[in-house]
Structures are given as structure tokens and as C-alpha cells.
Automatic annotation (TrEMBL):
<keyword id="KW-0808">Transferase</keyword>
<dbReference type="GO" id="GO:0046920">
    <property type="term" value="F:alpha-(1-&gt;3)-fucosyltransferase activity"/>
</dbReference>
<dbReference type="Pfam" id="PF00852">
    <property type="entry name" value="Glyco_transf_10"/>
</dbReference>
<feature type="domain" description="Fucosyltransferase C-terminal">
    <location>
        <begin position="152"/>
        <end position="280"/>
    </location>
</feature>
<comment type="similarity">
    <text>Belongs to the glycosyltransferase 10 family.</text>
</comment>
<dbReference type="InterPro" id="IPR038577">
    <property type="entry name" value="GT10-like_C_sf"/>
</dbReference>
<dbReference type="InterPro" id="IPR001503">
    <property type="entry name" value="Glyco_trans_10"/>
</dbReference>
<keyword id="KW-0328">Glycosyltransferase</keyword>
<protein>
    <submittedName>
        <fullName>Glycosyltransferase</fullName>
    </submittedName>
</protein>
<dbReference type="GO" id="GO:0016020">
    <property type="term" value="C:membrane"/>
</dbReference>
<dbReference type="InterPro" id="IPR055270">
    <property type="entry name" value="Glyco_tran_10_C"/>
</dbReference>
Length: 317
């Protein structure tokens, strides 16, 4: 059994000993021949998951030097890498190549090549361009998700999103939300940090409760302009037995069976008309139920990040 440690620039993951443990039927993060132990002191492999390398800082001014106020910005990377050899260190970048951060992503890739044997991300300029292995944000056990029948559906459509507006794509999504809301459509909005004008049903501690009771779910990516980027928005929706009305790139078509999701054509009047038509009845959901069943098994067993890590580890056995 090989252990896989993890480091990330996502602050919420820094002390998560049980990261990804809900994505396997076995205790303590075991999948195949490997065990996910994010905080292991001496792991056999190391996953750098959306790790932002420190960027060079400008030289301090004379005043800074005199006052001794210069802050140390460089991380001690050898300590963070925990003695793992380069060929066993994996770098996975998962943020989309938005115009506002694309240069940061490129610098991260360049730095990662100095320390990691495998460097990948969901964009064409990554050293190894590839889709992101699946993670999800339901707290249900793997066994429950794998074996459960479809839960009772009682409501039409939901959208779980956030009020983030720091990029043009984020602002486009919020404009679309405002347009949907102004039509008085039967859509329940959930999320954190949403603007005061949003008639929200509140923030969720578990996305399951904002998806499982609904037939349809709006799964709208922050980025839809390449053939690689697809995020947990789609996996979460399908695992809750929703039929996703999906706005995103072509990666989903390569990874999931036909008919398991619907394509939202655009974030404008045409898209609003499409949502109105689909959600006016339940025909589309019933027609897609078998494809949703198949897609859920693909997500759980094949696209699962733990399965991906296990296959990577197998190369060294």
C-alpha cells in the first residue's frame, strides 16, 4: 500500500486529514493499491493540488531595509515536498485559464516542471493538457452514492452558485442570474456571498440538499472556451440524480454518455428560453434517467480522482 500526500494553496485543505476519504468505499482513503493521506509526513507520492508557487517579489526599498520590515515570501519547498522524489510528485492545476489569471497559471506550470515528474491542467498550454479528475462536494458516503436509488424529486430546478465577481466571466454569470430571476421562473437559488438583489434560498453546508430534491439543475461553468475544462459543478449535479442543464466546454461530451446532460446554448435570451422550455415539464428528465444512471457510475469509478491517483501509482509497481 502506497501513501499519497497532498499540498494545496486552497486554505480549507491545509489541515484536512480526511481529504477525499468520502470518495472511496474503504476506510481512511484507500483505493486499490494506494491510500490518500494528505498530511502524511513521509508519503510515497505527493500531489500538489492547485498549488501556487511564490512569485518573485520586487527588491525592497531603502526604507524597508532600514526598518527591517521586508517580509519573507519564499516558501521552504524542500520541506513541503517531504522528501518525495521528483518522478513521484504530481502537479494538478484545476483553475480555468481565465484571461485574468492565465499568466499566473503559466508561471505555476513553469515552476512545477522543476519539482514534479507529472504536470497537468485543463488547458492547451499545460505541459500535459488533460481534463481534471473528478472530485465532488456531497458529503454522502461512496457506498450510498454507488448503491442508492434515485431520491424523491419534488421540485423543478435549482442553481447553486456564488456572488464572486472578480472576473468578466463571473460577472457574465451574475448578469444571467439576474435575468433569470427577473422572469419569475421556478428556479431556487442557493449559494454563498450572493448579492442582496438575489432572492436566495440561502447558503448550503451540503450541496446534496440543494440538488437531490430537484429534477433539473443549472450547472454553469466559469469557463467554457476549450475542450478540457469541466468541474465538479457537473459531477455534483449528476450524482444527485439531476439532469444538468450545462453550460461549459466540450470535455463533458468526451467523458459522459450521450443524453446524460443538456446543453445550455448561451447565457442570454436564447438560453433563458431554452431553460423555460425544458423545465416546463418533466419529459427531459425521464428521457435521460438511464443515461444519468450510467454517468453516475462513470464519475464514481472511472473519473474519480482517487482512481486516477491509483492508476498513476500503478506505473511504479
Amino acid at each position: 500500500m502506497k501513501t499519497v500526500g497532498m499540498i494545496s494553496s486552497y486554505g480549507a485543505l491545509e489541515s484536512r486529514a480526511d481529504w477525499l476519504w468520502q470518495q472511496t468505499p474503504h476506510p481512511f482513503g484507500v483505493w486499490g493499491n494506494m491510500q490518500m493521506q494528505a498530511l502524511a509526513e513521509n508519503p510515497d507520492f505527493l500531489l500538489m493540488y492547485q498549488f501556487d508557487f511564490p512569485q518573485p517579489s520586487p527588491p525592497p526599498s531603502l526604507l524597508d531595509r532600514l526598518r527591517k520590515q521586508q517580509k519573507k515570501t519564499e516558501l521552504n519547498l524542500p520541506d513541503l515536498l517531504r522528501g518525495v522524489s521528483k518522478e513521484r510528485i504530481i502537479y494538478l492545476l484545476r483553475e480555468p485559464p481565465l484571461e485574468e489569471i492565465v499568466e499566473i497559471n503559466k508561471r505555476n506550470y513553469q515552476q512545477a516542471k522543476n519539482y514534479c515528474g507529472y504536470v497537468s491542467g485543463p488547458d492547451d498550454f499545460a505541459p500535459t493538457p488533460d481534463y481534471m479528475p473528478a472530485i465532488w462536494y456531497h458529503s454522502n458516503t461512496f457506498k450510498d452514492l454507488n448503491e442508492m436509488p434515485c431520491p424523491q424529486k419534488v421540485a423543478s430546478c435549482s442553481w447553486i452558485t456564488s456572488g464572486i465577481n472578480r472576473t468578466a466571466n463571473h460577472r457574465q454569470r451574475l448578469d444571467f442570474l439576474q435575468s433569470l430571476q427577473s422572469r419569475g421562473m421556478q428556479i431556487d437559488f442557493y449559494g454563498r456571498g450572493l448579492q442582496k438583489w438575489v432572492k436566495t434560498s440561502g447558503e448550503l453546508g451540503n450541496k446534496w440538499y440543494g440538488m437531490a430534491p430537484y429534477y433539473y439543475n443549472l450547472a454553469i461553468e466559469n469557463y467554457a472556451d476549450n475542450n478540457l475544462y469541466v468541474s465538479e459543478k457537473l459531477w455534483d449535479s449528476l450524482l444527485a440524480w439531476c439532469l444538468p442543464i450545462y453550460y461549459g466546454g466540450a470535455a463533458a461530451d468526451k467523458l459522459l454518455p450521450p443524453g446524460s446532460f443538456l446543453r445550455l446554448p448561451s447565457l442570454d435570451e436564447k438560453g433563458i428560453a431554452y431553460i423555460q422550455e425544458v423545465t416546463s415539464n418533466l419529459d427531459a428528465w425521464y428521457a435521460a434517467k438511464d443515461a444519468i444512471t450510467e454517468a453516475r457510475q462513470i464519475i464514481l469509478h472511472k473519473l474519480n480522482l482517487l482512481n486516477w491517483l491509483s492508476e498513476f501509482v500503478n506505473q511504479f509497481s
